[in-house]
Amino acid sequence: MATKQKPIKVCLINNGTARETPWAHDLGPASGPKGSRKVRLVNVPFFHAKPTWGDVIVVRPVDGVLTWDREGASWEAVGKRIAEDGGRWAMILDYAPRGKTDVNGELAQACAELDIACERAWPPDPTRAGRVFLAVGNTLTDAAVMSQLRAAKLPCELTQIHPKPAPAKKPAKKKRKR
Asked: CATH number of the domain that 155 lies in?
């Protein structure tokens, strides 16, 4: 019988800032400083669009904490800091329930049906919408995600935060017949 992999906490930073500690599965030793490990993220980080859920990264001990540092890499170059791309990208949505106080479970289920990892950043309250972070498969566009989630008829209003949605196209002007 296979044993279930126990998650470990790792630290993601960017030159010492944007510190967060997602869960990961330890895949074993990696080249680098003594104690370096190869890990697969099993959370959707909030401060880092990449790496995200499913990506494999090499972490090294920094003050006793297994750490991955973006080291200021640009968005275009951050892929070189990832050992194995898990085939997902980050998307952020706000959700405002209609009626019920929280619909996170229903939203998470709708995402799961689209093979999207969904994690709640915070629940809605009377002063603000709830927020979820998604790890979306590379085969889906943000427009497709929004279209499919809205088609699920969830009891909430969805607002796309990241990536910024493309502006709505204006309808073409009709030509006048002469």
From this structure: 3.30.70.260
Q: Cα angle vertex 60, ends 46, 17, to 5°?
A: 40
pTM of the prediction?
A: 0.86
Same domain, 48 and 27: yes
CA angle, residues 22, 15, 162, in degrees to nearest 5: 55
Q: Which of 37-51, 126-140, 160-174 has the lowest mean pLDDT?
A: 160-174
Rounded to whole angstroms, how far apart are CA atoms 93 and 163? 9
Are 55 and 82 in contact, with CB atoms under 8 Å apart? yes
- Give the tens place of pLDDT for each residue, 134-164: 999 999 999 999 999 999 999 999 999 999 9
Compute the 3-state secondary structure of the chain and give helix, strand, coil in percent, each to the nearest 5. 15, 40, 50
- Contact by Cβ (8 Å): 54, 90: no
Residues 37 and 92 in one domain: no
Q: Is residue 177 part of a domain?
A: no
Residue 16 CB coordination number (10 Å): 9
